[in-house]
Amino acid sequence: MPKGRRDRRDVLLRVANVNPASVTTHTDRVLYSAIGVFVLLYFVYATIGGAAFIDAGSNYAHPWYRWLVGPLVAAGVVAYDRAVVGRVAISYDDLESTDPKTFLKKPTIGLYAGRLGLALLFAVLITEPLMLSRYQGEIDARLNEVHNQQLSKIDRTGVVGTWTTRIAQLKQETAADDAAVRSLTDSAGQKRQDARRLYQQAVDDSAGNGVTRAAGCPSGGYCDQLVRRSRSLDDEAASLDVQAGRLLDTQRSGRSARADEQAELTRRIAEQREANDVAVKADAGFGARTAAMWHLVTSDFWGVGVFYLGITLLLVALDCAAVGLKFASRGNAYERNEARSARRREHEATLIHEREIQDARTYGEAMARVVADGIEAATHDVEVARDSAERASAVLRTSVVVPDEVRELTAHNGRHHRSLRAELLHGSESVGRHRRALHALPSEPDRAPTE
């Protein structure tokens, strides 16, 4: 096969973190090439899912940095998948064995369980945002309904409800004041109507059309009594109007205070409702949309839930495809080739290490022998030198005649001021503590040479 074509075919193997030199069968090449394809597909899927997660978290404001976070998330998961796929559980026990059954360790359950947990975690962080984007219209409708319910509840139970109750109380107080004034004015109006009615009866009676059937309105008569009663009712009506006016004067300050308070509360309610509306509608992020999505799944399972679960399982399967193929292909030719090569290198390294240790021991023993021989030779040389010195001293003592003065001097207790050499050289000129001067040593008589 040409080198360029082989390099192109090895790209997918490199993506799957597989050593192309150990892929010797067509089956393994197809298997690990498929794993490389799944890794690339998952990189694209994780990039889009990570960007969708950031977009959903920002209430679909479409921030530009979402395309920076997506590749980072995808790179992290792909790195983990490549580490799992490229890992071969090689056994280094009994390196001299050639049985293929001893090449590999048993699979580590924790590694694959951790990858499954990571797949479920990323199914929430990556798959869920994609599903939220898929059902965005239905989720917006559900969120609108939820927000209206929340605003109604806030108006009833929150500070808006308290202010609304206070406004109702102020209106009741104003209505009570109006009722009191209205009662007086209504009574005054009723008395005026009665006065007009009595006066009309008096006019009719004075014309001869009344009860007495007599014309005129003599003093003390029935007509005159009607007129007086009419005037009395007018006076009472005027008195009630005065009372109503005085009541209004006394209520004016209270009415003004209530009107100001009511206007202030109305303004606060409007501001609070606007703030509540902004806050409630802002609650449309990832958590709120996930809750809305779950409501749609549970309330309309056959319309939404089936497709939601199906697509979610499909994306999770894509997430776990690479590791699943790796787990299913355990013990294939590729892993045995990698195990053989690694075990051979380990065996060679072990042998080299043993040889180095043996050489170090041999070198140490040789050095110890050399040092011991050197110490022994040095000890022998010291003994030879000591024997030679003793023999020379003996020969010197037998060959030299020492005068008595010297013997006495050497036998002295050592408390003289000048050295022994000075005593010997200067003789009588010495200022030491000797009582008599030292004489020069006699010359040694000529001796015949001895053989």
UniProtKB/TrEMBL annotation:
Bilayer-crossing regions: 30-52, 64-80, 109-127, 301-325
Protein name, as recorded: DUF4407 domain-containing protein
Region (Disordered): 427-451
Native organism: Paractinoplanes ovalisporus
Statement: the UniProt record of this protein carries the keyword Transmembrane helix: yes
Record keywords: Membrane, Transmembrane, Transmembrane helix
Top-level taxon of origin: Bacteria
